[in-house]
């Protein structure tokens, strides 16, 4: 069975072509959310150091919320007549970002890297919100709610990285490895 983004039917008020466009957007969001929840769990398992318990306990509610977001995205795609691809192979084949590269590391290092991850997810989500909004307000609304939550999670991360002067210790790091290094040095 071949998976395709153009459905045979969709919700009232949208054409199948519009639904297909939304399903493609939602599929990439599903991949990003599945990747993010696995990355967050990886951080949860591999964080060490004096801030261990604060970060360890901060991450699990984020994992749970991101998993719920993925479910909402997949269910919206189904409502539009689509089929969500949630397998690891589909995620890896479609993603446009690199795998998380930090292993066992200091909590602040992981938070520096996670800030870069959240920036990428949020920037992509903002583009998805704009694209969805041009077609369907219901899908746009779903994504806006997720954007709000993800921005709050990034704020939680950044609160650990902020200096008394109001700047981030990670500065202008472009990669998670660079951000992890800057966060602890």
From TrEMBL:
Q: Which Pfam families match?
A: Ferritin
Return the SUPFAM superfamilies for the record.
Answer: Ferritin-like
Instruction: Output the PROSITE patterns linked to this UniProt entry.
Output: DPS_1
GO MF terms listed in the record are: ferric iron binding; oxidoreductase activity, acting on metal ions
InterPro entries the UniProt entry points to:
DPS_DNA-bd, DPS_DNA-bd_CS, Ferritin-like, Ferritin-like_SF, Ferritin_DPS_dom
Residues of the Ferritin/DPS domain: 23-163
Which residues are in coiled coils? none
Q: Which family does it belong to?
A: Belongs to the Dps family.
Q: What is this protein called?
A: DNA starvation/stationary phase protection protein
């Amino acid at each position: 069975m071949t998976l395709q983004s153009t459905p045979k039917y969709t919700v009232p008020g949208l054409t199948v072509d519009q639904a297909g466009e939304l399903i493609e957007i939602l599929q990439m969001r599903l991949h990003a959310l599945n990747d993010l929840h696995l990355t967050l769990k990886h951080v949860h398992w591999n964080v060490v150091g004096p801030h261990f318990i604060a970060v360890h306990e901060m991450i699990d509610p984020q994992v749970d919320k991101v998993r719920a977001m993925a479910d909402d995205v997949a269910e919206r795609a189904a409502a539009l007549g689509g089929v969500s691809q949630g397998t690891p192979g589909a995620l890896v084949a479609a993603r446009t970002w690199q795998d998380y590269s930090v292993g066992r590391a200091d909590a602040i290092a992981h938070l520096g890297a996670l800030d870069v991850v959240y920036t990428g997810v949020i920037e992509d989500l903002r583009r998805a919100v704009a694209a969805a909004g041009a077609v369907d307000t219901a899908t746009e609304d779903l994504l806006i709610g997720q954007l709000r939550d993800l921005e709050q999670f990034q704020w939680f991360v950044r609160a650990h990285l902020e200096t008394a002067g109001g700047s981030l210790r990670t500065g202008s790091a472009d990669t998670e490895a660079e951000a992890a290094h800057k966060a602890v040095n």
